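stage 2 :: seqdesign
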């Protein structure tokens, strides 16, 4: 089996074989919902951090009891899965105030079903980036580390934390190498395949992932590149874009996805951690200085610059800006992104969608029309 096939299989199931192996050793798995949760703290405690998603959810009725249909369907899907014990393999959940919908998911689950998870914690992430915010965030991470140690009866030493940071920095480096290959005129990997790789990165031990990534990069060096595509595309916008089938629909029509600016993509791994004497401060700086979420009110210009840099580096012909319906955070910067890309002459498509894959006929029609616009 090739490394890509192995990674694809690991990404296909919520409770994959790597999670089962980890659990069989008596070890804990803790889920998290946002890229502002420093996984290194959990990994240093010999706990597997697991990026929570609800891929395949087609019925949110369990979550709809507690959340309005005007709440984003990603949050309602995850709440439904939690209430239906689809996350029974998790020993805990970690949230942030990434958005009001995720915060409401935390409040509801903590209130109506606290017995589902022995450990639930919340990290307060500032909504701006400056020295004071980084210091605030660092203090929150110190508290999170203490809560993990108390809940699981472990001690997270600086030596263990430094080792975890080094492992994660290797992951980041390997994933950036994968994205560099996608800059080629004939990339050796599709966007859908790349998303599966990143999903695997968030759901298996990083040591194993790094070995598979090294093998994958070697495989791709000898692989014939993809040609005959109609346009090179970028996916940008909100989180919740964790279903490779969305990407496959686009790519089956001839639009090759060569990069992204997404929570389940580049923003997850782009910024390495520079190790200093204060490891918690090192984590806080790195996580706050990464390509930011739209919730960071004072970083719009930097987000736009990152977007344009990725477009230039990957020779992007058009951008699909997708958000989960009713997402105030990413919907709030839609006009700024659209206007900036219009000025730069980059074709732009806005895709407002539900989390679950549906309405594929309409989606195909819109993608087809967008590709024809680019070709003209």
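stage 2 :: out
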């Amino acid at each position: 089996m090739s490394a890509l096939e192995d990674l694809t299989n690991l990404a296909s199931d919520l409770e994959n074989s790597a999670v089962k192996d980890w659990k069989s050793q008596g070890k804990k798995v803790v889920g998290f919902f946002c890229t502002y949760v420093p996984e290194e703290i959990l990994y240093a405690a010999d706990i597997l951090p697991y990026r929570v998603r609800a891929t395949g959810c087609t019925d949110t009725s369990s979550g709809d009891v507690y959340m309005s249909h005007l709440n984003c369907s990603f949050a309602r899907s995850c709440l439904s899965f939690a209430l239906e014990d689809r996350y029974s393999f998790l020993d805990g959940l970690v949230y942030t105030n990434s958005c009001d919908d995720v915060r409401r998911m935390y409040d509801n689950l903590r209130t109506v079903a606290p017995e589902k998870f022995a450990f639930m914690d919340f990290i307060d992430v500032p909504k701006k980036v400056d020295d004071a915010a980084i210091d605030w965030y660092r203090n929150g991470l110190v508290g999170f580390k203490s809560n993990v140690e108390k809940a699981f009866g472990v001690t997270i030493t600086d030596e263990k934390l430094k080792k975890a940071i080094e492992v994660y920095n290797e992951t980041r480096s390997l994933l950036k190498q994968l994205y560099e290959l996608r800059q080629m005129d004939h990339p050796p990997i599709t966007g859908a395949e790349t998303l599966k790789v990143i999903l695997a990165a968030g759901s298996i031990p990083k040591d194993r992932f790094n070995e598979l990534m090294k093998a994958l990069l070697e495989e791709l060096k000898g692989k014939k590149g993809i040609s005959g595509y109609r346009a090179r595309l970028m996916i940008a916008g909100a989180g919740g874009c964790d279903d490779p089938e969305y990407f496959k629909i686009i790519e089956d029509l001839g639009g090759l996805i060569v990069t992204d600016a997404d929570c389940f993509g580049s923003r997850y791994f782009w910024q390495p951690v520079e190790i200093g004497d204060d490891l918690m401060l090192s984590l806080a700086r790195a996580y706050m200085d990464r390509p930011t979420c739209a919730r960071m009110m004072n970083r719009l210009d930097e987000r736009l610059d990152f977007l344009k840099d990725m477009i230039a580096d990957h020779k992007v012909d058009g951008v699909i800006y997708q958000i989960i319906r009713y997402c105030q955070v990413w919907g709030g910067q839609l006009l700024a992104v659209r206007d900036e890309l219009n000025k730069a002459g980059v074709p732009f498509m806005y895709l407002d969608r539900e989390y679950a894959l549906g309405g594929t006929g309409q989606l195909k029609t819109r993608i087809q029309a967008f590709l024809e616009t680019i070709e003209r």
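stage 3 :: structure notes
- The CA atoms of residues 186 and 227 lie 6 Å apart.
- The longest strand covers residues 231-237.
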